[in-house]
Design brief:
- This protein has 265 residues and is of the alpha/beta class.
- The protein has 9 helices and 7 strands.
- It has a single domain, classed as Rossmann fold, CATH 3.40.50.
- The chain has a 7-stranded parallel sheet with strand order 3-2-1-4-5-6-7, with helices on both faces.
- Helix 6 links the parallel strand 5 and strand 6.
- It is globular and about 55 Å long.
- The mean pLDDT is 95.
Length: 265
């Protein structure tokens, strides 16, 4: 009994996994983590240089260059997935950008549209293509969408980003109901403040918009987190692995925060 429970906490080796926006950051960490469990992993990203670096580091990963906000690019990714993996058991829908920082009245229309195109529309494009493959999988199929703590809290000066991340939770909740009868589980991970270059840039932009120093803004972020620390990409990867393990076979329709308990934004 004990060994069976322990074993169920790990994804079954051989899962066919697609990670979108997976050449760097959270996506790359998740891709590497699945590879370490014996999964067959395909990664797409708009950054060819970063993709080549990931493939050089982890040769087992296959890749596609694509702009996730363009439906035709997404269609081509799935052509590659079918060729490389022969099907799909897990979609990690991870694509996202930070979007503009500033008061709503100062935001440019083009920046709003670009944020929605990348952070929301792309997730629709990938889900639409992935669902037939997931329905055909008999290997505990699942879809994980990467939302954000900004998908459960308001986020002043980052309204476009927050709106898209809230929308992803709605997408997940609806798909969990729609796909449950087919045995496909759908969940969302909501990362908090994640250590790395991207968060450094976000903090810098927010500091500039608020007229304070970067150090003061960083300390402000820490004071909002109950554990007083940022999370890491490994923390997010561990949750993704668990959600794709047999132990999580009855977990669906959930928005799971990995954020040290972010109290407010």
């Amino acid at each position: 009994m004990h060994n069976r429970i322990i074993d169920s906490l790990r994804p079954v080796p051989g899962l066919r996994v697609l990670v979108t926006g997976g050449a760097s950051g959270i996506g790359a960490a998740i891709a590497r983590a699945f590879c370490e469990t014996g999964a067959r992993v395909h990664v797409c990203d708009v950054d060819r240089v970063a993709l080549d670096g990931l493939a050089a580091e982890t040769p087992a990963i296959t890749t596609s260059t694509a702009d996730a906000s363009i439906a035709k690019d997404v269609d081509m990714v799935f052509d590659d997935v079918k060729h490389s993996l022969g099907g799909l058991d897990v979609l990690i829908s991870n694509v996202g950008i930070a979007g503009p920082t500033g008061p709503m009245e100062d935001l440019r229309h083009a920046d709003w549209e670009r944020t929605v195109d990348v952070n929301l529309n792309s997730h629709f494009y990938f889900a639409r293509c992935a669902i037939p493959l997931l329905k055909a999988s008999g290997n505990n199929p699942g879809l994980i969408t990467m939302s954000s703590v900004a998908g459960r809290l308001g986020y002043a000066l980052r309204t476009p980003y927050a709106c898209t991340k809230w929308a992803l939770v709605g997408l997940m909740k609806s798909l969990a109901i729609e796909l449950g009868p087919h045995g496909v589980r759908v969940n969302a991970i909501l990362p908090g403040t994640v250590e790395g270059d991207r968060m450094t840039g976000v903090i810098g932009a927010r500091a500039a918009a608020a007229g304070v120093s970067v150090e003061a803004m960083r300390e402000e972020y820490m004071q909002k987190i109950s554990l007083r620390r940022m999370v890491t990409t490994d923390d997010i990867s561990a949750m993704a692995l668990f959600l794709c393990s047999p132990a999580a076979r009855n977990i669906t329709g959930q928005a799971i925060s990995v954020d040290g308990n972010m109290e407010y934004l």
